[in-house]
Design goal:
The chain has two helices and ten strands. By secondary structure, it is mainly beta.
C-alpha cells in the first residue's frame, strides 16, 4: 500500500514539471510543436513492450517533403536517468524500420517507435513505475509520460 501511495505521489509531482498542453491537445493525447507531434504510447500502462506514435514535418500534409528532419527518441526514468533508445518500426516514404532513433535523418511523415521495455545498459526489464519519453525533432523537444506495470 505504501508503494501505491508513493507512486501516486510521484505521478502528481511529475505532472507539475510536465509541459502544459491545451485542452484540444489533451483530447487527442498528442503534444504538438513546430510541425512535430508526439502521441501517447500504447498500451499504457504496459508490460513488457510499448509503441510510440509520432510525426515530423507537419505530416500528413508535408509542405516540404524533401526536407530531412533530425530525430531522436529517448526513454528516461522518473529522475531523468537515461533508460533506452527505442527503434523505428514503421513509417512513411519507405523509411526502413529497425534503426535506433538517435540522430536519425528522416523525411516528413508519420512514424512509430517500439521499446521492448528493457534497460539498454543491462538488458534487464525496466522496473514498474513512471517513465518519460522525449522526442527531439530538429532540436525541439516534446515530452510525455508512460507507465510500466509488472
Amino acid at each position: 500500500m505504501k508503494r501505491l501511495w508513493g507512486a501516486l505521489g510521484l505521478v502528481l509531482a511529475l505532472s507539475v514539471f510536465m509541459p502544459r498542453v491545451s485542452a484540444a491537445q489533451q483530447q487527442d493525447s498528442k503534444v504538438r510543436r513546430n510541425g512535430a507531434t508526439l502521441g501517447q504510447n500504447y498500451p499504457n500502462p504496459f508490460n513488457p513492450a510499448t509503441h510510440i506514435p509520432f510525426s515530423v514535418g507537419d505530416a500528413p500534409t508535408c509542405p516540404d517533403p524533401d526536407k530531412q528532419h533530425r530525430v531522436s527518441l529517448k526513454i528516461y526514468n522518473a529522475i531523468m536517468g537515461f533508460v533506452a533508445t527505442p527503434v523505428l518500426t514503421r513509417g512513411t516514404n519507405g523509411v526502413a524500420g529497425g534503426q535506433p532513433l538517435e540522430k536519425l535523418s528522416i523525411p516528413c511523415g508519420q512514424y512509430e517507435a517500439y521499446w521492448d521495455g528493457k534497460v539498454q545498459a543491462t538488458g534487464r526489464e525496466a522496473a514498474s513505475g513512471v517513465y518519460l519519453y522525449r522526442l527531439e525533432v530538429d532540436g525541439v523537444p516534446l515530452v510525455k509520460k508512460m507507465i510500466v506495470v509488472k
